[in-house]
Design brief:
The structure holds two protein chains of two kinds.
Chain A (H helix, E strand, L loop, with lengths): L1 H12 L1 H23 L33 H36 L3 H14 L3 H12 L3 H27 L3 H8 L4 H37 L11 H8 L7 H29 L1 H10 L1
Helix pairs in contact in A: 2-3, 2-10, 3-4, 3-6, 3-8, 3-10, 4-6, 5-6, 6-8, 7-8, 8-9, 8-10, 9-10, 10-11
Chain B lengths: L1 H15 L5 H6 L5 H11 L5 H13 L13 H36 L4 H15 L2 H15 L21 H7 L3 H38 L2 H8 L4 H38 L5 H10 L3 H29 L1 H5 L1
Helix pairs in contact in B: 1-4, 1-13, 5-6, 5-9, 5-11, 6-9, 7-9, 7-11, 8-9, 9-11, 11-12, 11-13, 12-13
Classes of the chains: A mainly alpha, B mainly alpha.
Chain lengths: 287, 321
């Protein structure tokens, strides 16, 4: 509890991390309150031909799309898809990646060697390339995009946790715990895990931003939730035939992606400064 | 090499294990049940999995990726005829991000916390947060559609110059055709900018961090104490050290660029392998997507291998270690 308060205080004083926190809070509020905040909550999936492709105005804040739906309301509801995608994909990656990294780092055997080789292969190819292959195999749907992102992102956590665990294993306090007869699972859960949590938290924040970008790219390529779901990447791809006239149609969802990813990146950078004492010391020296 | 074997195994697992009926996927949506069964025996999908895996390796080693449903040509031919376009674009983007990124990163470190550093920080943070397909569309909207300064999309107007390399810029120069060079170049501007932006942001960030580290080191202190001019210290000794760390980042940069190429080529209708992947998705051309995955992966692994070798050659510490 004390640590949380400390982190929040420091975040408050770091200007860019604070902006990041505000952006992410706004994203979550938007997703939860989408039905209340949107001006046309029912029109998100409706077909309304007489109001097609209207420019932004007082009635339609961000204009309307090819179906005559309010772009502003669709962007708000799109925040839900974005959050669900990123939270589940990064959450599953954490659940797969962290235990594998801990176990592979703690026990030195051919099994851990094999596990790390497998994660190396995933890291050897850009994430979006493998995600395309998996999502296409499973067929275009939101669930499959989430699955594809989870299956391709966990090695990032494994790599990170593995390296940290390896170096922690030689620390005196870990050796003491083992010498005192602590069981391996006890050492891993109570002594190693708390000490690798900082880099995990930083990676989670940055990973959220990265996953949102990749998910949007998959949506843009036609692999995400099928129409008429208000998925941001798909909205941008739909808008292309109506350019340059309907610029708002493309601009609004892209700007939403930009703000959200920026929020997670700024927060991740800020958390890194706060949680990693080595870097913190270095940056103080430079000042 | 083990990585390539592993990659092919993973792609095999994706393509043979995950789908309920892989043959139906390969045959496409219009195939009749009889055609699917015929294809199953023809492709050997009725055999045990290990036999299939072995066959898969043998096929890939012979360059046999199957036939594309969409172009009805061998996938290997499709991919290799499209590779020069992707290499040209990726190379230009890499060049831009390094040539612009390194000096900016150095200046940003030297003027730490000055206005220049803050402005550049906003730009680099944006570069890592922007969806490149959206940036491309916005650039098209402004520079091609509204202002008409650049072509909207494609790689060339009309028939591109004949050449051996397939790189239009090089071919045009070699034949002395400067009009063609201009046309090819104008088509390259927007896609290169779009693709380079996130990579550029990464280079600036790494160079800045690297230079800040070097600035603290003892040899810089020594050179200062010896009264060497500041510009010589910065642009010769510090930059040389920063360059070494940039070479190690090229593999990472290439990953960013390759991932970006899929969507950027789609936006600009650039006839490379990224655009090919997009068309394959649109036509559910299953074999073609798997072929693209293996190709992109192998190219990426090769580039990283080359980077490791180059790095070992220019960094004496690596040789001793």
């Amino acid at each position: 509890m004390k640590a949380t308060v400390f982190i929040l205080q420091r975040l408050y004083h770091d200007r860019s991390a604070f902006i990041g926190l505000v952006l992410i809070t706004l994203l979550f509020l938007t997703a939860i309150l989408a039905p209340l905040l949107s001006t046309f909550p029912d029109a998100v999936w409706d077909f309304n031909p007489k109001d097609r492709l209207l420019p932004p105005g007082t009635q339609y804040l961000f204009g309307t799309d090819r179906m005559g739906a309010d772009v502003y309301s669709r962007v708000l509801f799109g925040a839900r898809i974005t959050i669900v995608t990123a939270v589940i994909a990064v959450g599953v990656s954490l659940l797969i990646g962290v235990p594998i990294g801990l176990v592979a780092g703690y026990y030195q055997s051919w099994v851990s060697e094999l596990l790390m080789r497998v994660s190396d292969i995933f890291l050897a190819v850009p994430q979006v390339v493998l995600a395309i292959a998996i999502a296409q195999t499973l067929g275009p749907s939101l669930n499959n995009v989430i699955l594809a992102l989870s299956l391709t992102y966990w090695p990032w956590f494994t790599r990170l946790v593995y390296a940290e665990t390896r170096s922690l294993k030689n620390e005196v306090f870990i050796e003491s715990a083992i010498a005192l007869g602590a069981k391996p699972w006890r050492v891993i859960v109570f002594h190693i895990l708390p000490n690798v949590s900082s880099p995990i938290i930083v990676r989670t924040s940055i990973g959220m931003g990265f996953t949102i970008l990749t998910a949007a790219a998959l949506g843009f390529l036609g692999l995400g939730a099928p129409a008429p779901a208000p998925e941001w990447g798909r909205m941008i791809s739909e808008s292309r035939e109506f350019l340059p006239e309907a610029w708002w149609y493309a601009a609004a969802p892209g700007f939403a992606i930009f703000l959200v990813v920026m929020g997670f990146n700024l927060l991740g950078d800020g958390l890194r400064d706060i949680l990693d004492p080595r870097i913190r010391r270095a940056s103080r020296e430079h000042n | 090499m083990p990585t390539v074997v592993g990659l092919i195994t993973i792609v095999f697992l994706i393509s043979h294990i995950i789908p309920a009926d892989p043959v139906a996927l390969i045959a496409g949506e219009t195939a009749t049940p009889e055609q699917v069964e015929e294809l199953r025996t023809q492709l050997g999908y009725d055999k045990p999995l290990l036999v299939q895996l072995g066959r898969y390796f043998v096929d890939l080693l012979q360059g046999n990726f199957g036939t594309s449903l969409f172009t009805t040509r061998p996938i290997i031919d499709d991919l290799s005829s499209r590779l020069p376009a992707t290499i040209e674009l990726t190379f230009m983007a890499m060049l831009l991000s390094i040539v612009v990124g390194i000096p900016f990163g150095v200046l940003s470190a030297l003027y730490r916390n000055a206005l220049f550093d803050h402005v550049l920080r906003i730009i680099t943070v944006s570069g890592l947060a922007i969806a490149s397909f959206w940036l491309g569309i916005m650039l098209q909207l402004l520079f091609a559609m509204r202002l008409g300064w650049t072509p909207l999309q494609g790689r060339f107007d009309g028939f591109p110059p004949e050449g051996i390399t397939g790189f239009l810029l090089a071919d045009a120069l070699a034949s002395g055709d400067f009009d063609a060079f201009g046309t090819a170049f104008s088509h390259l501007v927007l896609p290169t900018l779009t693709l380079a932006f996130p990579a550029l942001a990464t280079v600036v960030r790494f160079t800045r961090a690297g230079v800040l580290d070097v600035l603290q080191s003892n040899f810089v202190l020594y050179e200062r104490a010896m009264g060497l001019p500041a510009s010589l210290i910065v642009w010769k000794y510090i930059l040389r050290n920063a360059m070494v760390s940039t070479v190690t980042q090229i593999g990472l940069l290439f990953g960013i660029l390759l991932a970006g190429a899929v969507v950027v080529e789609t936006v600009f209708d650039w006839p490379g392998i990224g655009n090919y992947a997009f068309n394959s998705i649109a036509f559910s051309d299953y074999n073609a997507i798997m072929g693209f995955t293996v190709w992109a992966g192998v190219i990426f692994i090769l580039v990283n291998l080359i980077v490791d070798i180059v790095h070992a050659m220019i960094d004496p510490r690596e040789i001793r270690g």
